[in-house]
Every structure is written in structure tokens, then in C-alpha cells.
Protein 1
Amino acid sequence: AALAQRPRTMTQDTTAPSTNMPPPPPAPQTVKAKYEGGVFGYNQKMEGTLSFDDANQRLVFRNKKQKEILFLPYNALTSAYADTHAVQPAAATVASHIPYVGLPASFIKTKVRYLALQYNDPDSKVAGVTSFKLENKDILDSVLYALADKSALTRRGNVYIKKDK
């Protein structure tokens, strides 16, 4: 005897992320960030700040000396999302190679949070993906929300995208 499958009935999933979530607190005008790469011509990682330049409609990255290094126009952003990676700190990596101490040290992980941006610049005809390492989840959420709002991106799950008009 064989049992046939029947179609599943759809129910409202209450565990799915809601698109009507309350907005995070307002983002500061400038936040500490570490550029991780992705913009054509800027290969090295560097620390600095990300700033909203609303007068010129762009997101600006400046190095530690506050020299403007690169910028992304708001209208060039096609998607943005928050990314998290669990990494092992350097001290834990070294300790993991020491006999008898190493095993517990190998389980030490920290979360690193990134703002990932996909862009397509109509002026320079350059497209790509870049990321910036930010301090914590609260800063990341508020910067992501503010940037999506300024860039006219629409939320789709955990990602903000630019819809075709």
C-alpha cells in the first residue's frame, strides 16, 4: 500500500521577520568603521569613519586623518544588508596550540558585524559589493536603516533592495 501526499495548508507564520518592525534609533551622522574592500581602486583594508553626506546625497568613508577616501552615491546603491561572522580572536588562536589549554581556547569566538552594500554607479559605470566592519549590532541596525531610507531601498526580509520603477 502506498500513501499519497496531500497538499499542505498555508498558515500565517509568526516566526518570520516582520516588515512592520519598529525602526531602530536614529543613526549618528558619523560612525567608526573599517573598510574591508570591494570598491574598484581601493584594495587595502583601513580604519576610519562612515558619514552621511546628505547635502551631496552620498555615503562617505574617511580615513583616520579625516581625509575623504571614497564615497558611494545614495542613488548608486542597489542593495544593503547586515552580515555577521563568528571569528576566533588572535589570542585564542595562539592559545589553541598550547597543550592542555588549547581545546577550551579553540571554542572562543566573537561576532563581527558588517554593513554590506551592493552598488551600480551610473556615472562611472562601475558595479560591485563592498563592506564596512561596524562596532556593534545597534549601530549597524541604525546605520543600515538610515542608509536604506536615504537611498530609497525597500525592505525584503533582512535585505534592503532597490525596486525597479
Note: The radius of gyration is 21 Å.
Protein 2
Amino acid sequence: METDATETTRDRIVSTAVVLTADIGWSQVTMAKLADAVGVSRQTVYNEIGSKPQLAEAMILRELDRFLAIVQVAFDRNPTDLVAAIRAASQRVLEHAQDNPLLHAVVSATHGADTELLPLLTTHSESLLGVAKVVIADRIEPYDIDLDRKHLEAAIDAVVRLVLSHVMQPSGTPADTADDVAWIAQRVLR
């Protein structure tokens, strides 16, 4: 595995864990295998990451950061048109999800016995949803929206959950799905 000179040991461990998870499945990833793949001692893995559940959380949070960065860029490129920003963010997130090895490993694991990572994205995803909703709420604040706070929060929640459901189980192309999300957002927000 090629390494980036600016990448920290922790980053390398998390990146390698994603590759191993995609290749052999989360249940087969051990700290010893991970250490061997990274080229460090097992103790270094424990010192940098902690336990295997902490490794899972680090992998998921890193991917969340990547998805949220995509959302930030989409809003930056559409500073005056909220619906266009939502469409662009939705499409880019869905495109990124198509090629995401960790997401594929988690989703494909739901069809087998290797489901240990799934709760981080589903039943224990309150923090993921919470972070995503906060980012969206912060980004839409500058737009002129004629909704009271309660209804705006409900709209944000619905859009975030809708996009995440398509991330987990796509039903169309990213462009078509983003158009649908934007249509719904336009009806609610305008």
C-alpha cells in the first residue's frame, strides 16, 4: 500500500483497516493483521487507535468527515441557490458512496454474518445523523428561508435521512436521485 508523506501513523492504520475490511471482512480484521499490513507493531496500533470498536468508530468518523466535506463544497459553489446546493450535495454524496469501499463492506455485510459495523451506521447512528444535521443547518443559515425553526429542523432531518437512505440502498442514479431530493426540498423550503 502506497503511503502519503503527510499521513500520520493513525491515518495509515485507519486507511489500511478500511482496505482490509473491504478485502477480508470486518470480522477477519485483527489488530495483528492490521499491524502487519501497516508495517508497525501491534502495540503501535493499540497506542494509536485503542480497541477494535474504537478502530471501527475511527473508520466511520473519517468517512463521515469526507462526506461532509463534499457537502461543504456543494454549498460553497451554490451560495445563493439553496435548492441547487442541496441537489449538488446530494449528487456528490451519492457518487462518492458508489465508490466507497468501507460503505460497500458494511452494506454487503448485511447480507451475511459480518454485521458488526452496521450499528455504527444505523441504530447507533445518532451521532452521525446529529453531525450531518448540524452541518446542514449551519450551511443553510445564510439562505432566505420562510420556515419557522421547528419546521426547518424537520425539513433538514427529512432531507438528511432521505439522502442517507439512498447512500445505503440506492434506487437510481446519483443524478436522478439528487433531482428527486431537490424537488422535495424545493416544495418544502419555498
Note: The longest helix spans residues 52-77.
Protein 3
Amino acid sequence: SGIELHPTSGFLDGSFYYSHGHTWPKEEFFKAKYIITGHVQPQIEFRDSLGYRWTEKVWVISRLKLQAVKKKFTVSYTENLPELIIMPAFNRFSGGYSLNSCEAKERKRAFSNPITSLTDMNKAKIYLLDGTYLGELENLTQQPFP
């Protein structure tokens, strides 16, 4: 009672389109201002001068590329493309991908969310859970995203 199940492709709710992230969304996502997705479980690795390392879960925010969208979808909608927000894993036992320390090939697999193929992940903005802005992904990694 009171529970509604949605398809894996996601659903539109006002200005937001919600999707788990492992499948392509329905084209109604163009009506949204934001696409909220998960699946990737992004994190950033930190190292101190003594070699100690730790990871922090992060939010990833990226813009869709108009040319990539036009290539994939046949809709004529080209203005105000929604912004992509990839949520971090909120369970500390679920693991994740350290986006700034994994090899470029592994990082591409980490972004196995289909909608990320329509973005420039090098320009994705990275935020800690407390809202601290760390910068664009390309400035946090040693290798550019393929």
C-alpha cells in the first residue's frame, strides 16, 4: 500500500527524472531539468605525504553534450538539456570506483551508466558529501577519461 514500482528506465517527477542508471532512460527525460541516477558509486581517493590513503564518496554533476544527444535520440528537443547528477553510494559496504586513481579503461567501465556516454566526464564537477567542491574530474585524475 502506497508503494509504486517504476521501470528500470526510470520515471519523470516534475523537474526530475529518476533512474537507477544501468539502462537507457525513456525520452521523457528531456522534459526534466535534472537526471538523478546512481549505479556508478563514485568516490575519490586521497593520499597524504606519508602514503596513507583513504576514499570519500562523491557526487558527480555533468552536462549532456548536444551533438551526442542528437546522435542517440531522434527528438528535436535541443534546448536546456537536463543536467546529470550521479549520486554516491550511501551504504559504506557497497564499495565504489575511485575515479581519480583507477586506470582510464577501468574508469570507463565505472561509468557504465549509459547516459554518461552523452556527457564529457572530463568536465564533470566533483563534490564531497558535505558539498565541498573538489574540481573537474580531469583535474583530479592522472589520465583523461577515454
Note: Residues 4 and 77 are 29 Å apart (CA to CA).
